[in-house]
Amino acid sequence: MIDIGSFLAERRYSTVVLLIALFITFLVLLISWPWVNVIFLTLWAAYILWFPAQWLERRIHRRVLSAFLVMLLIIVLYLVMIFQVVYILANELTSFSVATGTANTTLGNALAYSLGLSGVPVVTNVTAGAGQAGSAILTAFVTAALDIIQGIIKAAPLYLFQLFIVTLLVWYLLINGDHIVAEFKSLAPRNHQGAVNAFLGHLNSIYHALYVNYILAAVISGIIALVFFPIIGVPYAFTLGFLMLTVGVIPIIGRALVYVPVSLYFFVIGDPIKGIVVLILSIIIFQLIVGIYLIPLLGRRSKAGIPKPVALLAYVIPFAALGLAGVVVGPAVYGFALALYRTYYDKRKEEDALAERPPSAEASAP
């Protein structure tokens, strides 16, 4: 029977150290929890920007300068996009009349015109009812959007401070990231080094498939939007293209979050033909060509082999629950769980193979 008192006495120092470490860990988590989104964003940005920074470093042979140039470009682009989005929303939304009668007329006439039956009395009554329902939605949307803009403006100092913190942390990780990973690997016990390396290998390939491949597809979608939207007469093409790059990482619905509102915009301002053209051409380009051909092509080049339902769940459910933060947090959590599962599965396969291996001649000899 184990003597608990002697057991604790013999290991008193280790027990005290363990309790102190757990207490400090709890305090760190408690203090850092309000900034958990910033931490996730930092890790995500460092992982994504590691690849262009390494590409640039191989050409100019200056790691610090490579990290600085890559981060400077991203920060400038996003700041320009944010100010452009706020300006566009404020300018366009305030130009809409939120009065019910005006909205009824606009939406009702647009629907009747799109059906080609604008002069038929029965159709006029039906479309007027549809316009009345649509005006309520439009009024609520405009009011909510203006509230969001006011909230962003009020919280701008906090966002800028968080951006400053993220910038410093990402820059540090871009410079010392490989050393941190190597040090982390060295902390694992020697008898678990193989499992840790296998887990990190799975994790890297999964994150590359979930993040890098979809970001490449989003970048291509943004470039296409930058060229395609001006051709068909869509305003603010640069901002819309950058929005496509930002939310296009979300599988299936990400690109639709840009072109569907653009199409609805033309319906609201009374140009339904252009709205239908934008919608149809966008579905063909962004959903069929990019979604069905390009993304699977990038996925076949990856060794991770992420099932489509897993990729969809990793983005859509966290996005619905957490907003834009879910685009970062969701794939990180799902990818981590999938890497754990694949590491455990490989370990079990290895153990089963060893168990089923026939005994050697030396072991079976008397």
Summarize the structure in words.
With about 375 residues, the chain is mostly helical. The chain contains 14 helices and no strands. Helix 3 (about 35-60) packs across helix 13 and helix 4 (about 65-95) packs across helix 9 (about 235-245). It is globular, with a radius of gyration of 27 Å.
Structure summary:
The chain has two domains: 35-187, no CATH class; 190-346.
Number of strands: 0
Approximately how much helix is present in the residues?
Answer: over 70%
- Please give the oligomerization state of what you see: single chain
**Which ranges are low-confidence, i.e. pLDDT below 50, for 5 or more consecutive residues?**
97-104, 361-366
Number of helical segments? 14
Straight-line distance between termini: 39 Å
> What letter string, H or E per element, gives the SSE order?
HHHHHHHHHHHHHH
Give the percentage of residues in beta strands.
Answer: under 5%
Instruction: Tell the overall outline.
Output: globular
Mean pLDDT reading: 74
Number of domains: 2
What structural class should be given to the helix and strand makeup? Answer: mainly alpha
Supply Rg. 27 Å
- How would you sum up the major sheet? none
